[in-house]
Amino acid sequence: MNWPRTILDGIAMALLFNAVVGVGFLLYPQAYSTMFPKEIKEAAAPFVDRKDVRKMKLILYPLYLLLFIYWAVSAHFAEIQGFWTLFWTGYVEMTIVSISDFLILDCWLPPKAKPYVKGTEDCNAWEVKEWLIKLAIPEHALGWTFLVCPIAGLIVAGIGTLLG
Question: Fewer CB within 10 A of the end CB, N or C, for the chain?
């Protein structure tokens, strides 16, 4: 594995991921509330527009596709070969994205996002401790580590193997 390239690609994609998600949140804060803790989802539900949720998904899904394609093509040009080497490259890069997501979007952003989501002003789930316990730690310690990162690794390895 090419560690410097893997780390730099992970950082680059983490920056892109957080920037796109952050801008998407500024454009459609109510739509993003559908991914927040249960208390916030329920409080924001009357104000959520389904068209905005679709627009949010049109921002996020192409972003995920771009991440996987970039990682596979980058690994190809870095001459990283072999299914398992490509898998671990994708896994490590997605782990870097996960860590940045946790630090920026789950530790730093929630208290600042509160005023943007209508109907949730009185929710305790905006408190960082509550947010971490109910959403961020389970999501990143379990979900990303055992599901998202391995799937990303498989996708990167698959695309990289197809590229030759």
Answer: C
